[in-house]
Design a protein that fits this description.
The chain is of the alpha/beta class. It folds into two domains: about 5-90 and about 170-315, 3-Layer(aba) Sandwich (Rossmann fold), CATH 3.40.50.300; about 100-170, no CATH class. The chain is built from eleven helices and twelve strands. An eight-stranded mixed sheet has the order 6-7-8-3-9-10-12-11, with helices on both faces. The longest helix has 18 residues, at about 185-200. It binds adenosine-5'-triphosphate, iron/sulfur cluster and magnesium ion (MG).
Length: about 325
């Protein structure tokens, strides 16, 4: 078996409570997965389930509380900032809100070339490369001395992508890269990301709450609930036969393109909001909202395990749906 590009094991992040004496927040609670070279793994789940925190730990914007992050077979989770510097070039992040993630006082030339200058490139060389990257992501290189506010949301996200690609990364963590954009622009950015993946051999961890976008771009999908992965597997398996009640509920809320199918489909409405990660329920943390919950669910947490023989898909449920 070849070594995966990224292997995350038992990753955990506990934030101190926001107020004095409030309970610590276990935002990510023992997350494990792998991303192969050239693959796109989708990470989905409701707001606050820990998607961004997971992504930020992988690119080391956050130091994990525990667990390991192996990149190219090397544990990078605990490297010092200095030891991490050469590896930073290989792991990059694209953010949700393109305008707020770009410094409004810097020109595009500066924004895109900064990561190269940090790595020791000469200013003229970095500027030349920035112009090349603008062309690669579908921007006009002559606009290199403009400021972010002179670009539309979609164009600004192209700048964010060009900045992420400046150091020729192998893995890009894209945190809701299209959620803030108009639907028509979303498709253009998704197309761009797919083309860049083919041309540059990139791997993506693609974070989104929109299951239609995930279906379009991902090879495999991980579903998160309250800091944990509850189902992970090939996209075809998850979308055609979701095994976890939470995955089923999320999918049942996605509109179907065929109006007849849309009228007759089963809809599963989840009760209430997700509980706070500062006070997760005992047993299976999904039990207060699960239509299938039984006694054991209230006391015993289900482990993430292979649900059906011969399938790579894993599910954390005492009573997974089969077939
Ligand atoms: N710096 C922090 N300090 C304390 N709690 C935090 C911090 N960052 C995130 N959290 C909490 O951790 C949990 C997970 O947050 P995270 O941003 O990772 O979720 P998310 O899945 O990305 O949500 P969204 O879809 O809204 O972006 C939330 O309960 C959040 O309030
Ligand atoms: S373990 Fe029980 S409560 Fe949890 S998802 Fe499965 S059936 Fe529902
Ligand atoms: Mg987020």
């Amino acid at each position: 078996m070849t070594t995966p590009l990224l292997r995350v094991r038992d990753l955990t992040m506990t934030f101190p409570g926001r107020r004095a004496r409030s309970a610590p927040v276990r935002a990510v609670d023992g997350v494990s997965f792998e991303v192969a070279t050239g693959e796109t793994l989708g990470l989905v789940g409701e707001s606050g389930c820990g998607k961004s925190t997971t992504g930020r730990m992988i690119v080391r914007l956050l130091q994990p509380t525990s667990g390991s992050v192996e990149f190219g077979g090397r544990d990078i989770g605990r490297l010092s900032q200095r030891a991490l510097k050469p590896l930073r070039t290989e792991l990059q992040m694209v953010f949700q809100d393109p305008h707020s993630s770009l410094n409004p006082r810097q020109t595009v030339a500066r924004i895109i070339s900064d990561p190269l200058i940090v790595q020791g490139a000469a200013v003229a060389e970095a500027r030349r490369r920035a112009a090349e990257l603008m062309e690669l992501v579908g921007l006009i290189p002559e606009h290199i001395d403009r400021y972010p506010h002179e670009f539309s949301g979609g164009q600004a996200q192209r700048i964010g992508i060009a900045r992420a690609l400046a150091t020729s990364p192998r893995l890009v963590v894209a945190d809701e890269p299209v959620s803030a954009l108009d639907v028509s622009v979303q498709a253009q950015i998704v197309n761009l990301m797919e083309r860049l993946q083919r041309e540059l051999g990139l791997s993506y961890l693609f974070i989104a709450h929109d299951l239609s976008v995930i279906k379009r771009v991902c090879d495999r999908v991980a579903v998160m609930y309250l800091g944990r992965i509850v189902e992970i597997g090939a996209k075809e398996h998850l979308y055609t036969a979701p095994a976890h009640p939470y995955t089923r509920a999320l999918l049942s809320a996605v509109p179907l393109p065929d109006p007849a199918a849309e009228r007759t489909r089963e809809r599963i409405t989840l009760l209430g909001d997700p509980p706070s990660p500062a006070a997760p329920p005992p047993g299976c943390t999904f039990h207060p909202r699960c239509p299938k919950a039984r006694d054991i669910c209230r006391t015993e947490a289900p482990a993430l395990r292979i649900a059906a023989a011969g399938e790579a898909r894993q599910v954390a449920c005492h009573f997974p749906e089969s077939g």
